[in-house]
Design a protein that fits this description.
- By secondary structure, this protein is of the alpha/beta class.
- The chain folds into 2 domains: 2-309, NAD(P)-binding Rossmann-like Domain (Rossmann fold, 3-Layer(aba) Sandwich); 321-478, Alpha-D-Glucose-1,6-Bisphosphate, Chain A, domain 4 (2-Layer Sandwich), CATH 3.30.530.
- Helix content is 34%, strand content 21%.
- The chain is built from 14 helices and 19 strands.
- The protein has helices at 11-22, 84-99, 121-134, 154-165, 184-193, 215-226, 240-250, 255-265, 276-279, 287-299, 321-324, 344-352, 364-376, 450-478, and strands at residues 2-6, 26-31, 47-51, 69-72, 106-112, 140-145, 148-149, 168-171, 178-179, 182-183, 203-207, 213-214, 231-234, 332-340, 397-398, 401-407, 412-417, 423-434, 437-448.
- The chain has a 7-stranded parallel β-sheet, sandwiched between helices. Strands 14-19-18-17-16-15 form a 6-stranded antiparallel β-sheet. A two-stranded parallel sheet has the order 7-10.
- It is globular, with a radius of gyration of 24 Å.
- The termini are far apart.
């Protein structure tokens, strides 16, 4: 079948894409920015990438008329806009309007379990989107899932942060609420098996794993799988806002996502409709096994997608072509150059391993302080790390940076800052090859917002001596063959407007 996949750059979409191709389908991926979707070469001949914005109906004319099934995997859990429900409503209405003009015979929507009476604002919005999609002339199949457990999922990573960092947890009342987690493997299985299944048309199904647990039990089981002993103490006085701050400062989540999660945690998400088990018989993986599988993916460096892949900055709105060319005017620049005598590939490999557990090649305490300050003012901090410890691709999170360009052929890595700043910042590494080695060019560019931005730059300028000078030297020295003499030219510091 020819299938339209929206949300192809999201956590579920990236996992679903290769599974659809494996099932023999041809997939059309609708994205806002084609640069954000890296299609594996092994399936490229079965995948078309088109651009369109669900908020703009006319842009959806790029959707082919001959699609047969359309996946709607769009939601705004971490969307920073206050009126996210209106955002989701417009997207769903535009999607329905365009799909109705195609040859599609089925819409498939992944939603959340909405069996409680007093739903959170996000679950209410999910339910409203489902109602909009159901009004379409194209039959709708809805799968409602609770917490999804898999390497890179928001729920998995937040539980991991809590369990691995806190031997003793002071937890709010919602840790006693029941949930029915489901492994990402089982979610993808159901999404692929409902395609073209007449028994699933115009139907809504709850999907969940075999275990019904509360959040406290989930964290304790997680700890046992990891070989930790943990203690959780319930405190009834933690308000939703205090709970949001608790999640935000302890885990790698953004504050807006922490608020959304806490708002939703008041609801019990347990399956009530098990009809799908009769239509599509399938034995789901238990919670503990789902955790083990997730860690095996992490150990193998085969994590396909992460919730951190979503944009969280208020500046970078999803299309980052304009950010690839770093601005030259109205900017403050710290540029340093260092020559070396060794294969340029060695230095490039060192650059490519930057961030995450590797750190930023020196002055770790200064980076740590900057990350802590970012957290205290509502930023992402340093805790996001890397999705993959080996490779980098455009759109990847890298601590409080975002990868804009990762071009190994031209030996250029460009990062855009997602930390809280009175301006915009880029960090670029570029290697120019010479006959007997090469030159590493490291450039930090800052475009200030008014006087405050300039004051910020000059206030941290003394730290650049330690941070940026040490970073470029350590990158070259760390990848150095000690039998060769490192030749350096004086580092050139350039500050200009």
């Amino acid at each position: 079948m020819k299938i339209l996949l929206t949300g192809a750059t999201g956590y579920i979409g990236k996992r679903l894409l290769p599974a659809l191709v494996e099932e023999g389908h041809t997939v059309v991926c609708l994205v806002r920015d084609a640069n954000r979707l890296t299609v594996p070469s092994s399936i490229r001949n079965k995948v078309d990438v088109i651009t369109g914005e669900l908020l703009e109906l006319e842009s959806l004319n790029s959707i082919p008329d001959d699609i047969e099934v359309a996946f709607y995997l769009v939601h705004s859990m971490s969307h920073t806009a206050k009126d996210f429900s209106n955002f989701e409503k417009i997207c769903a209405e535009n999607f329905v309007g365009r799909i109705a003009k195609t040859k599609a015979k089925q819409i498939i929507y992944l939603s959340g379990i909405v069996n409680d009476q007093n739903l959170s604002s996000h679950l209410k919005s999910r339910l409203h989107v489902e109602e909009i999609l159901r009004r379409s002339s194209v039959p709708l199949t809805t799968l409602r899932a609770g917490i999804i457990i898999g390497s890179g999922s928001a729920s998995f990573e937040i539980i991991r942060d809590l369990v691995e960092k806190l031997p003793v947890m002071i937890a709010p009342r919602w840790v006693n609420n029941r949930i029915q987690p489901i492994a990402i493997y089982d979610v993808i299985y159901y999404l692929t098996k409902v395609i073209g299944n007449p028994g699933c048309y115009k139907k809504t199904f709850d999907i969940g794993g075999p275990d019904i647990l509360n959040y406290k039990q989930m964290m304790l089981q997680f700890a046992r799988v990891r070989g930790f002993k943990r203690f959780i103490i319930n405190v009834p006085v933690l308000s939703p806002r205090l709970s949001s701050y608790w999640l935000y400062f302890v885990t790698s989540t953004s504050f807006s996502l922490a608020q959304s999660l806490v708002d939703s945690l008041k609801n019990e998400v347990v399956c009530q409709n098990d009809e799908i088990t009769r239509i599509i018989p399938h034995k789901c993986v238990g919670y503990a096994e789902a955790v083990r599988r997730a860690f095996s993916k992490i150990a193998e460096n085969t994590v396909i997608s992460s919730w951190k892949d979503a944009w969280i900055t208020g500046t970078l709105h999803g299309n980052y072509n304009e950010f690839i060319q770093v601005p030259k005017y109205g900017c403050l620049v710290d540029q340093r150059k260092l020559s070396f005598e060794k294969p340029a590939q060695e230095v490039l490999d060192t650059v490519w391993s930057i961030g995450g557990s590797q750190g930023w090649y020196g002055q770790y305490w200064l980076w740590g302080i900057r990350g802590f300050i970012d957290k205290t003012v509502g930023g992402v901090g340093l805790r996001r790390g890397r999705t993959n410890q080996i490779s980098l691709k455009p759109g990847d999170p890298l601590d409080f940076w975002r990868v804009i360009l990762a071009d190994k052929d031209n030996m250029r890595l460009l990062l855009y800052a997602e930390m809280k700043l009175p301006g915009e910042a880029w960090l670029e590494f570029k290697i120019v090859k010479h006959q007997n080695g090469g030159e590493l060019i490291q450039t930090a560019t800052f475009r200030p917002n008014g006087l405050l931005g300039r004051l910020y730059w000059y206030s941290i300028l003394p730290f650049h001596i330690f941070v940026f000078r040490g970073m470029i030297s350590n990158i070259v020295n760390r990848s150095s063959d000690k039998s060769k003499k490192l030749q350096s030219i004086p580092q050139r510091l350039e500050t200009k407007y």
